[in-house]
Design goal:
mainly alpha
Length: 91
């Protein structure tokens, strides 16, 4: 069971690398952190546990910051961000 938890956490990290937009990426990253925290705890892997305990508030803070900014403000800064997976990456 612990191994499956580790694989689920790893696949969540892989999913973040496949995402093209920041909002879903941060949401999945928070889930990945939670899975790795559980994995590190149950598998008694202190470095994994500590790393993801540190990354979780960072990802939550970045997610919160994204949600507070209007999309046009983000685009006006020159950041190539999109808010939904349905948007085409070429515009």
């Amino acid at each position: 069971m612990i191994t499956l938890l580790g694989f689920a956490a790893s696949f969540a990290v892989l999913a973040t690398f496949l995402m093209r937009t920041m909002l879903p990426l941060r949401i999945v990253a928070v889930g990945s952190n939670a899975l790795f925290i559980a994995y590190g705890y149950f598998a008694h892997i202190l470095p994994v546990l500590c790393l993801h305990l540190a990354l979780l508030p960072i990802n939550i803070g970045r997610l919160s910051g994204l949600r507070e900014q209007p999309v046009n403000e983000i685009h006006s800064r020159g950041w190539p961000l999109q808010w939904s997976m349905s948007e085409d990456a070429d515009h």
